[in-house]
Every structure is written in C-alpha cells, then in structure tokens.
C-alpha cells in the first residue's frame, strides 16, 4: 500500500512540473477605464508567495522597491527602472483572488499616462523579459520546495515501510518459534495420552486385584477375631 502511495506522489508531481506559466498582452479595467497590461498566469495557487517573491526579486536584481503592504496591490511609482526606460516610470502589480492558480496584471505608467503596446513596444518588451526571468526564478523556487516536501514524504513512507517490514520479519520468526513449540507440545501431549492409557490400564488391573485381596483379608481378619474371642472365653 505504501509503495502505491509513493508511486502516486511521484506521478502527481511529475504532472505538476509539466505545468508552467503564461504571459499575454491584454487589457484590464483600472482607474475607470481599460488599460493595456501584461497578464501573468501561473499554475500554482500561491498568490501571496508570488507577490512577495516579485517584490524581493525586483529589489535584489534592479533596486526597484514595490510597496511593502498589501500583497494584492504592489506599486513602484516614478522610479528609474533602467531595464525598461531611462526615464522615471511607475509599475503597478495587481493580483487577482483565485484558488487554482496565480494571476496578476502589470501596468506601466509614465508622466501620468498608461503605456500602450503600440506606442511603447520597447518598454513592454523589456518588461516581458524581466517578467519571464522572474517567473522562471519563482517557479524553480516553488518546485524546489515541493521536491523537498516530496522527498520528506517519501523518506517518511520509506521509514514506515521499513519499520513494517522489520515487524513482519519479527512476527515471522515468532510464528516459526511458536510452530516449533506447538509441534513439541503436540508430541508431548501425545506421549502423555499414551502414558495415561497405560496408567488407566494399570489402575484397572490394580483395582481388580485389590478388590480380591481386600475380600481375602476381610475374611482372614474375621476368622482371627473369632479365634481370639474363643481363646479369651476359655
């Protein structure tokens, strides 16, 4: 049963590793109107973790600090994001509430104007490069942690299986000893029954002989008592 469980876990996570992410250009409503953005979809239901990792990634690699509080809405306003533009730019990350996956949208704004794909292709292309690099990084971290969990689970199952096998071996040895004792006791019981049969035969013979002898002794005692009384009377 535990072997089946291990195989099931391995099959499940191999399937999971085949799932990745998607980045697409689209439009979402923001500030009362449709704004062009990058829509990112990851096949892992870890929105808060991804949001925190995005903040850490941009700080470590580009010195860009997204807002710290509120994981669903992150922004870095009027910052120099040299990978995207040599002018000050604002980046907004908005995470959706989903259970089966992680979805977030990235908006760019410059001089109070949301950037469009047609007019600002270079900036969006650069952002997409950053996003893909980040996604590979965060997915690798996520799956590394999942692999650790798998290995811990497999190790736990292996230990449990080994313990069960040791107990089975111990039980088999105990059964073999018990079978040996049962065989020995069975032979002993057979010997005792044979002895009892001999003893019963001896007892019956002695009882018969004893009855005859007792009758003779009683008669002899009566005769002696009569003889004794006769002598005393004379």
Key features?
234 residues; alpha+beta; TATA-Binding Protein; six-stranded antiparallel sheet; 3 helices; 6 strands; rod-shaped; disordered N terminus
Structure explained in plain terms:
The chain is an alpha+beta fold. The protein has a domain of 149 residues: TATA-Binding Protein. Strand 5 and strand 6 form a beta hairpin. The longest helix is centred in the C-terminal third of the chain and has 113 residues. The N terminus is likely disordered.
How would the blueprint of this fold be written?
Layout: H1 2-18, E1 21-30, E2 33-42, H2 47-62, E3 73-80, E4 88-95, E5 102-110, E6 113-114, H3 121-233
Antiparallel strand pairs: 1-2, 2-5, 3-4, 4-5, 5-6
Give me the number of helical elements. 3
**Any idea of the CATH topology of the domain at 2-150?**
TATA-Binding Protein
Mind telling me the CATH class of the domain at 2-150?
Alpha Beta
Strand content: 15-25%
Helical coverage, percent range: 55-70%
Q: Catalogue the unreliable spans.
A: 1-18
Derived from helix and strand composition plus strand pairing, the structural class reads alpha+beta
User: Nearest-angstrom radius of gyration?
Assistant: 48 Å
Number of strands: 6
| Shape, principal axes of CA atoms | rod-shaped
Mean pLDDT, to the nearest integer, reads: 87
Written as H for each helix and E for each strand, in order along the chain, the element string is HEEHEEEEH
* CATH architectural label of the domain at 2-150: 2-Layer Sandwich
Distance between the amino and carboxyl termini: 106 Å
Let me know the largest β-sheet. Answer: 6 strands, antiparallel
